[in-house]
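Example (one chain per record):
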Amino acid sequence: MRVGRLLFVIPLLIAGVAIGESNAPCNDYRHLAQGSWVITEAHVRTNGSPATIKRKVTVTVDPSTGRRAIEESRWVNDAFEPVGAPRVLDDGAVRGFDDLGLTPASQQDEQVLTIGRKRYVCTVATYVIAGEGRSTTLTLWRDQSGATQLPPRTLSINNKDLPLPADALQADFVVEGQTVSSKGERRIASLAAPLRVNGQTCNCLVEETRLRGTSNGKPLALDVREWYCHDLPGERLRTLTSMTSGAMQVESDVAVLDFHVARPDASAVHASPQHRGSR
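Predicted structure:
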């Protein structure tokens, strides 16, 4: 599991709304073609103890099956060193929220959201999604104009990554299970925030998630701020996380240092920089 995702998933696992590890092919990097790569650096502080992790993930092909896979490397002694064998991904098919066939449990009257200086008339629908010993109630506010096309994003619910609609401007969610009870919200902080990545300026959507509740009898608080852009579809350019669960406190800052997005018809082997001593 990649660093940016790992640090985001750990607190959500405690909340009971995140995806879990599995030996089966996963749908990570489904927006990135073979030959794409991403370099991230994470600064983590757990109960005051700091750590820094730098990794590179390359989308490739598993030679034994011909299926998409990822190769992970970690920065050691001024070079990236492979970590484990390539991990097989799913077929890379990009399926949207509306392809899932979810039926709203209820719908509300149209509501107006104001983000920045713009007003959006939104449809409001609530879905109830059960599984993995819990039930999640998800409410989405969607721009009904058809003009909003936000970068690809996901929300992890009941051990599955749920793709958010490109026109989803706001989300509330409530999770109830035997060991978890939590309530959260996801809000847009900015629709156009510039972020520099290795000399390139990326125009980012910034979203903030706030979650409060209990997990395994302990109070839980989670705050996440994420940067998304169309330049690196489906991946976070930066993730700030602050989480407390009982006596445990975790703060992290995971940022993309560099990336390359290959065209879908790119060759199987794509040259990428070694970054030896450059970072």
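Caption: The two ends are 22 Å apart (CA to CA).
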